[in-house]
């Protein structure tokens, strides 16, 4: 009997360990496109990893069956369209993914987030979080005029009472975690005081690395913590922090917060240092190599593995397409169908133009590329790579306007847009002989890029006068090339 119970329990345990989380739905507008399901590696850099991918069927359906073990925020992507989903393992989620708003459809300069209808199996987590967010957003919309006065505090206290009555009884650990730190974020935005919010919501609580509202409120609590210009007490250490940053000393930076009463928890201090280094690294306020070195020190010395991971993700993002990093390799086809890889041109400087289609502005810039090619083509290899135009159109344009440099089409356009962080077209990059980034983004054809070309010339031909100058005038009587209809 005992043996039977043991075997039965083992079978049940095995079945539970293999239980699937199902993410399915309909995305009719996107049929035929690749849909990916991502896990966020952290909620401070928002680095993500693809867990699974499939193709949206002709009827618009898609389905993922995943063995998820982590609760939290996940990401669904279809090209540049993104949707967020809060997931509890071993449940079924059905999504109806809408089209982007019209303004988003015509704007290539950003990722587009849509709000799908979400039907949940045994949980109402996404519905509950959405209702909470709607309630708070309505408050901000209705009280926009009070934010510069003192009236906002009293009104926000009334809403906090309402929120507790409305949401405090929801029996969900994940929701209550989200609710707790969403209130912290709300109080920070409604004049409740930095110290009061920290004491009420953060002091003595563990870090919830998986919780979006914790990450958002943490960033607000410690917003620009390195950069106080008028500290209220001696414990802000803005002077010590600046000295530590100027010397690139992690030990001095870490020690600058030894006496800060808010940062006695080592895990909180590590997270603060990482998040602040990441932010100032993005702003390029300090030397990027120094920021990368400081993050490397965090990776080597941090006591918590998740802190090491966030620091590594921050490093990776700051180094991505930054000056001195190796440009991502990619395949492209020329106008007659021959396939190349950009790294095949190692040994020469490369000026890379990435275009979408032949708008009048794109053709105008390509006409200036032609002038650059005449002057610097011997020293610098030039490329115009399209992410959308067919080869026939590329061939027509090349012949009609005598564009005599390499013109081609990306073999994997979506991958190229992602790896090069493309948001608008045309975009330009200048690479050196080792395929390292010299300028990202590089200036378009004109006087600025010519100055960078001149440096290349002077390096290759010391003490020789430039034989050519571009510097096209801003105004010209010449009409720009017109687009050839497909």
Could you characterize what this model shows?
- By secondary structure, the chain is of the alpha+beta class.
- It has four domains: 122 residues, Immunoglobulins (Immunoglobulin-like), CATH 2.60.40; 66 residues; 98 residues, no CATH class; 130 residues, Glutaredoxin (3-Layer(aba) Sandwich).
- Helices cover 42% and strands 18% of the residues.
- It has 16 helices and 16 strands.
- A hairpin with a 4-residue loop joins strand 10 and strand 11.
- Helix 5 packs antiparallel against helix 6 and helix 10 packs antiparallel against helix 11.
What Rg do the Cα atoms give?
27 Å
Tell me, what's the shape?
globular
Count of individual domains: 4
For the record, what CATH class of the largest domain applies? Alpha Beta
How far from one another are the termini? 77 Å
Unreliable runs: 1-17, 104-110, 472-486
Biggest beta-sheet profile: 7 strands, mixed
Spatial order of strands in the largest sheet: 11-10-14-13-12-15-16
Number of helices: 16
Mean pLDDT, nearest integer? 85
* SS class: alpha+beta
CATH topology description of the largest domain: Glutaredoxin
CATH architecture of the largest domain: 3-Layer(aba) Sandwich
What is the tally of beta strands?
16
Question: Can you give the helix content as a percent range?
Answer: 40-55%
What fraction strand?
15-25%
What would CATH call the homologous superfamily of the largest domain?
Answer: Glutaredoxin
List keywords for this structure.
alpha+beta; 18% strand; Immunoglobulin-like; globular; 4 domains; disordered N terminus; 486 residues
């Amino acid at each position: 009997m005992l043996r039977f119970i043991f075997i039965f329990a083992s079978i049940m345990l095995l079945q539970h360990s293999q239980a699937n989380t199902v993410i399915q739905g309909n995305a009719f507008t996107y049929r035929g496109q690749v849909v990916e399901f991502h896990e966020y590696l952290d909620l401070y850099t928002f680095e993500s990893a693809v867990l699974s991918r499939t193709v949206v069927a002709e009827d618009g359906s898609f389905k993922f069956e995943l063995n998820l073990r982590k609760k939290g925020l996940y990401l669904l992507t279809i090209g540049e369209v993104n949707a967020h989903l809060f997931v509890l393992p071993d449940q079924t989620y059905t999504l109806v993914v809408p089209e982007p708003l019209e303004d988003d459809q015509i704007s290539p300069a950003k990722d587009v987030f849509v709000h799908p209808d979400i039907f949940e199996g045994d949980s109402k987590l996404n519905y509950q979080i959405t209702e909470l967010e709607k309630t708070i957003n309505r408050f901000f919309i209705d009280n926009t005029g009070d934010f510069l006065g003192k009236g906002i505090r009293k009104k926000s206290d009334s809403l906090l009472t309402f929120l507790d009555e409305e949401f405090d009884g929801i029996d969900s650990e994940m929701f209550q975690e989200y609710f707790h730190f969403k209130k912290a974020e709300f109080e920070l935005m409604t004049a409740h005081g930095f110290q009061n919010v920290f004491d009420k919501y953060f002091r003595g609580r563990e870090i919830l690395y998986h919780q979006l509202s914790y990450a958002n409120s943490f960033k607000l609590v410690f917003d620009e913590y390195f950069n106080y210009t008028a500290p209220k007490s001696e414990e802000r250490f803005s002077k010590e922090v600046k000295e530590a940053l100027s010397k690139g000393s992690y030990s001095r930076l870490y020690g600058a917060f030894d006496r800060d009463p808010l940062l006695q928890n080592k895990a909180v201090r590590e997270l603060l240092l990482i998040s602040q280094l990441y932010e100032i690294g993005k702003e390029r306020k300090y030397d990027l190599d120094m920021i990368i070195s400081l993050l490397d020190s965090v990776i080597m010395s941090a006591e918590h593995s998740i802190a090491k991971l966030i620091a590594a993700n921050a490093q990776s993002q700051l180094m991505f397409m930054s000056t001195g990093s190796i440009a991502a390799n990619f395949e492209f086809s020329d106008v007659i169908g021959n396939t190349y890889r950009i790294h095949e041109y190692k040994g020469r400087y490369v000026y890379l133009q990435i275009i979408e289609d032949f708008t009048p502005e794109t053709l105008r810039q390509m006409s200036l590329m032609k002038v650059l090619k005449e002057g610097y083509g011997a020293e610098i290899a030039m490329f115009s790579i399209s992410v959308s135009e067919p080869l026939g159109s590329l061939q027509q344009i090349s012949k009609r306007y005598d564009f005599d440099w390499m013109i081609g089409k990306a073999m994997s356009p979506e991958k190229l847009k992602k790896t090069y962080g493309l948001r608008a077209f045309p975009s330009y990059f200048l690479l050196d002989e080792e395929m390292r980034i010299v300028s990202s983004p590089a200036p378009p054809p004109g006087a600025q890029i010519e100055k960078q070309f001149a440096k290349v010339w002077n390096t290759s031909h010391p003490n020789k006068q430039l034989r050519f100058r571009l510097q096209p005038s801003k105004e010209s009587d010449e009409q720009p090339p017109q687009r050839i209809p497909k």
